[in-house]
Specification:
The protein has about 400 residues and is an alpha+beta fold. The chain is built from 10 helices and 8 strands. The strands form 2 sheets. Strands 1-6-5-4 form a 4-stranded mixed β-sheet, with helices on one face. It has a 4-stranded antiparallel β-sheet with strand order 2-3-8-7, with no helix packed on it. The protein is rod-shaped and about 160 Å long.
Length: about 400
Amino acid sequence: MPLLVTDYSWTQTDSMVHVSVPSKGVKVGNLDIVSTDEYLKVHYPPYLFEAFLLEPVDDVRSTAKVGNGVVVISLRKKANKMWEHLVIPTLNKEKKEAIRERALMKYQEKLCSQSKSKAAKKQAEKKYALESMMKLESDERDTIQKMKDTEREKMTEELAAWQQRQKKQIQLKSQEKNLSNAEASVVQQENKDQRNTKAKGKKQPRSLLPPRPSGNIQVTFTPRAFPTALRESRVHEEEQWLIKQAEAKRAMNADVAELKDLKETERNPEWLKDKGNAYFAAGEYHSALNAYNLAIRLNKKIPALYSNRAACHLKLRNIHKATEDSSQALQLLTPAVEANAAARIRAHVRRGSAFCELQLYAEGLQDYQAALKIDPSNEALQADAQRIRDIIEGTTDATAEHEAQ
């Protein structure tokens, strides 16, 4: 038999009833409080307090606080009026049992409703998380597709420009050939006329010209920044590349906060690039990445910084960032000239490798083919491109290929 608590107290206002029940030193976790519109129970074994309320209350807006050895229950009245008593003064056992059963049924329904509400809220949160993840994946696919479309358009434009240049060269060669044939015809006709004139007339003595005076001729050559001869070079593209390189060296941001701790000689993108290269060679890819990041913040016009940072991202499995940095390097490596051929090969190979890691083998093959156009005799590039073709054609297992790489 539980011990009934009788030393409780209560106060009221027109709209509220406050009931104070001593907790007898019981911990909060051991208190069981049940409140409905007509019934109130506080059970903490072996003690029990229950009240069959005189008037109905709004149990949804009622509250309970535990502290300082007292349980304070605040009940909001449904009707704003003063009560003569807290509980019904005369109530037989059967009515008490009926009220208690109704109260427990309502309490069970309330708990069930709360449980369903929590489950629905949890389900909604899972749905939101799934939708957010799907949106992120969709945005990522759109970004990659945009990159693919941009590269495809760029390759198409380059191919059209190359075809136009080839057409012009063929036309020039044809014009030169026609001009040579015309000149040969004129010379032949002049020779024929001279022979006819000599046959008809007498030979006339011809006076000889005096010999030319001897002397030295000074020959000077235009300095060249590229190894190829001027007649074999694309002068306009080479001049544009030299201008871009000069602008890149001047475009330095010396206001980066991280530079405050560096020496004056170390505040140089080229010095940071060399430092990153040394870290990369030692296998310290995070340190190399930090060096390249700071160098790029100093100067965003140096393509080697983006290409080298793409190599770090590949080692650290940051595949999407590797494709972004490789694409940025290729954008800076324009116009395409002999001086930046090796850098363009590296950028194409790194972006192609990143695409293959993302299982975008068709796009990866395009980059390897672009690298082979620059260096057709590179056997390593030929072997890698053939392996990617085998994966696309289904003759090689893509998983095994990744493990081999």
